[in-house]
Amino acid sequence: MQNGGKKTMAIEWVKLYECGYCTHPEKIVHPKAGLKPVKFPATVALIKHETKGYILFDTGYAQRFLSATEKFPYSLYRKLTPVFFSEEQAIVNQLAADGITPDEITTIILSHFHGDHTAGLKDFPQAEIITFRKGYEDIENNSKLRALTKGCLLDLLPADFKSRVRFIDDQQPVALSNLGDFHEGFTVIDDDVSIVAVDLTGHAIGQFGIFIRLKSGKVLFLCADAVWSSRAYEKLVYPHIMANLLIADKRAYVHHIQRLHSLMHTHPDIDILPTHCQVTWNKIQKGEIYE
Ligand SMILES: [Zn+2]
Predict the structure, then answer these.
(1) How far, in Å, is the centroid of ligand 1 from the Cα of 254?
(2) Beta-bridge partner residues of 18
(3) Counting C-beta atoms within 10 Å of the first and last residue's C-beta, which end of the chain has fewer, N or C?
(4) What is the pTM of this model?
(5) What is the tens place of the pLDDT at every residue in 156-203?
(6) 164, 127 in Cβ contact below 8 A?
């Protein structure tokens, strides 16, 4: 992640959390599998940055997701994707258990606007929200029902969203090197290249992932929903036609799977962490902290 004149501030550590899960028939992600429901955890990352303090990547499920989806039309969302969540799994409560207050979260990086990523936003009223303009513009003027067909619950966005958001895709992209087929991205914090967002439009318009370079030199790629499961890029398994409803741009989606596949081979030292993957979940259950 070198580029002319940009600096790399230190990321001290990254900790992952599971904030509830939903279920889908396995066939959606693996066409050769059956209709048995499988679990897709909603994971969140907490990043400790040397100068910015605590930064969240996405916000998982929260109690308000359940209340918001009780009534029609939002109840359709719950019927399609049954959600399993208990209050103590809300990221705000898990952070409290770790001694971190909501006001200490300075920044929330929002990969896209699906409900399982936005539900916890209102718990952090002080945080600056960093996302892509093209993701927001895709849902901004939609009716609630139209947004719902794209997986977004507009009621989950804070009322002051517009005054707290910063769209990083308005910036000039920076050139990336030594990250496989990912050649450019957007710095998340000023001109600091320790966290760089790359456009992964496919699953949703304006969805992005982040490369994180830790103080130790270790690199993580939080690729959000570019794939649901790491098996997709490991074995080049493309989603079932049923999943087309859940994918905004299928061609781009397939292209990202191929880029992840090649990154896995050229950079086996980079940990690729999809938000809803069982492998990511296993790491959380082991209490792994990246340093
Ligand atoms: Zn999503």
Answers:
(1) 15
(2) 43
(3) C
(4) 0.94
(5) 999 999 999 999 999 999 999 899 999 999 999 987 899 999 999 999
(6) yes
